[in-house]
Specification:
Blueprint: H1 3-26, E1 67-70, H2 71-76, E2 85-91, H3 96-107, E3 116-122, H4 127-133, E4 140-144, E5 150-155, H5 160-166
Parallel strand pairs: 1-3, 2-3
Antiparallel strand pairs: 2-4, 4-5
């Protein structure tokens, strides 16, 4: 054989070996309790990487359990919800559609997905907050960032699923 054919066969053999070894690495067995990950990624349960010599803790925070909470509870624990989608629900006790939504959300407290927090905001008592977000009608929802910046605003949702679909 000439040297070009030998070199080509050697290159193909090496490429095939790399491919087989790569497949073997990707198909390693794990128990049902272990999170699967690609060979180039850290397992899902590991803490985020920190620079060498960093004093940051290596524990990872779990997603906030989804909930329907009062404005007072939110304002007293804002840091707790910083990794959550926070939706302010401006509603009035005299508003029939607000009453229906409030009833549905209160009855669905165990059904909120992790990372979704809906905050019950009294429309009549929180005029400054209404002005801050330009809320002019009751039964208004406002998705906000952890710093309070408005992301999205809408009206009319009645259920957890409808709110989740808007977020």
């Amino acid at each position: 054989m000439n040297s070009h054919k030998v070199s080509a066969r050697a290159a193909l053999s090496a490429a095939a070996l790399v491919g087989v070894l790569g497949l073997a690495a990707c198909s390693s067995t794990t128990s049902a309790d272990e999170a699967s990950s690609s060979p180039t990624q850290a397992p899902a349960s590991s803490a985020p990487a920190t620079p060498t010599g960093s004093a940051q803790p290596t524990t990872q925070t779990a997603a906030v359990e989804g909930s329907y909470i009062s404005l007072n509870e939110y304002e007293n624990n804002k840091a707790k919800y910083s990794d959550s989608d926070v939706v302010l629900f401006f509603n009035a006790s005299w508003c029939p559609t607000c009453q229906e939504a409030n009833k549905n959300l209160s009855a669905s407290k165990g059904e909120f997905p992790n990372g979704l927090t809906v905050v019950d905001v009294d429309y009549d008592d929180n005029t400054d907050l209404r002005k801050e977000y330009g809320v002019t009608t009751q039964h208004t929802f406002v998705l906000i960032e952890p710093d309070g910046t408005e992301v999205k605003k809408w009206t009319g949702s009645d259920t957890v699923d409808q709110i989740e679909a808007k977020v």
